[in-house]
Amino acid sequence: MTSSDRVAVASPPLPRQMAWETAASAWHSTRLFAFVLVVIAIVVGAHMRFHRLARFDMSGDEGASWAAASAPSAQQVAKIERRLDPGKLALYDEMLHEWIGVFGDSVFALRAMSAALGTIAIVLVFVAVREVCRSLVDESAAAIGELAGAFAALLYATNLEMVLSDRIARMYPLVMCAELLQITFFVRAQRRGGMLNYAGIALFTAAMVASNFTSIFLMAAEALWLGWLPLATLWDAQSRRLAVLRPGCALAAGIATLLSWLPAAFALSRGAVKRGWIDWIRLQPISWPYTTLRNSTGDDVLFWIFVALATFGVWRQRRSARLVVEFVALWTGGPILAVMAVTYLIHPLEFPRYVLISFVGMFAFAALGAASLRSAALRIVLAILLISLSVGPVHFRVRHSDAAAWRGATLLAVQLTTRGEQVAVVPPYCINVVRFYMPPQRRAAAVGMKHKCS
């Protein structure tokens, strides 16, 4: 047969029944749904974090971060950080110092590191929640864990408090990444053991404490968990399969690596309290845990949807995933209870950004309920509803900030003064913001002044 005699034969079309089965399989695939949801969370979350990042002027706290990180050397970074943020170690400032060396110190560049870390944290939320489900139950919970992790990532990506925290040049996104990785290795070590998991606990325990002392509130929750498990073994066989001693030792090892720095940091913290540097944190009503969790959503309707989903998840998973429910309960409530204990025993510390990890626990609780829905259509509708309710408050706050117009005020002060004249800054803790906006040769002219009421 010659080439001209050949007749092209088309492949038979895919049978309609096979195409329908393929579509139905994709529709009911929890893994595919979870993957798509995580991708949506990353895209939406990254947009919320990076969009018009330099729209508003730098804040006083961001000025302190810039002042420390812009020092000429790493040694000077740590020295300035101890003066501006007493009681905190300089991990974030050292990282921001290196970031400035590559990307510069514009407002956008300074905040972009936080936005990038916040976007990474979206993925880490998925990883941590999925690992909690898989490690505290078994591989049979892999599907529910992936769904719960995906919904938790979506809630984190679009949450008002998280977006606002990730849009400022402060250490909170770094703390969040370290805490989520520490939780992941912590629950893995309880189920599987292994030197890699123990090393991960120690490394990220040290990292999160070095980023901000408020990470000890998560450690307090984990200590409660490790203390609860031996008691739970009296009536629950699943609890006996989780290690307690070695993960606890790994936590202690993480703190031990910081022992050469912690005494000085503790002394500086006491000095800061005595000098009244944190007197701006006031004692809150006893209802503070409820109000801070509710306000973190930015929408009362959204908060009560979280409550309904969490209640449904607890009811559906009360037997098959009881340990997951108990762990997430401590994840949510433990840091808040620890803050209240410090508040009533030492000094008020009831500040929402000190318990951001509790908000993620709340997302995990709600996500557990969302993952317990059996209908794919209901899950899709729920995801759309959650996004629509979350985007509104975030969009409003990003467009309407109450930040002071420091840039304009500084430029006006520079125009009205001559070289050698001082520029008074009130309140004095914003002095580094003024120095940031002043020409480099005139930054020494900015002087902090205490405001006296007549």
Oligomer state of the chains in this structure: single chain
Using the alpha-carbon principal axes, give the shape.
globular
Number of domains: 2
Quickly give the structural class: mainly alpha
Strand content: under 5%
- Residues in helices, as a percent range: 55-70%
Number of helices: 20
| Major β-sheet annotation | 2 strands, parallel
Output the radius of gyration: 25 Å
Widest sheet: strand ordering: 1-2
Q: In angstroms, what separates the terminal alpha carbons?
A: 108 Å
Q: Please report the total strand number as a whole number.
A: 2
What's the overall average pLDDT, rounded? 89
Order of helices and strands: HHHHHHHHHHHHHHHHHHHEHE
Unreliable stretches: none
Report on the structure:
The protein is mostly helical and 454 residues long. It has helices spanning 16-28, 30-50, 60-69, 74-84, 91-103, 107-136, 142-158, 160-166, 172-192, 195-211, 216-232, 245-256, 262-274, 288-297, 300-317, 322-345, 356-371, 376-399, 406-416, 431-437; strands spanning 423-425, 446-448. Strands 1-2 form a two-stranded parallel ribbon. The longest helix has 30 residues, at 107-136.
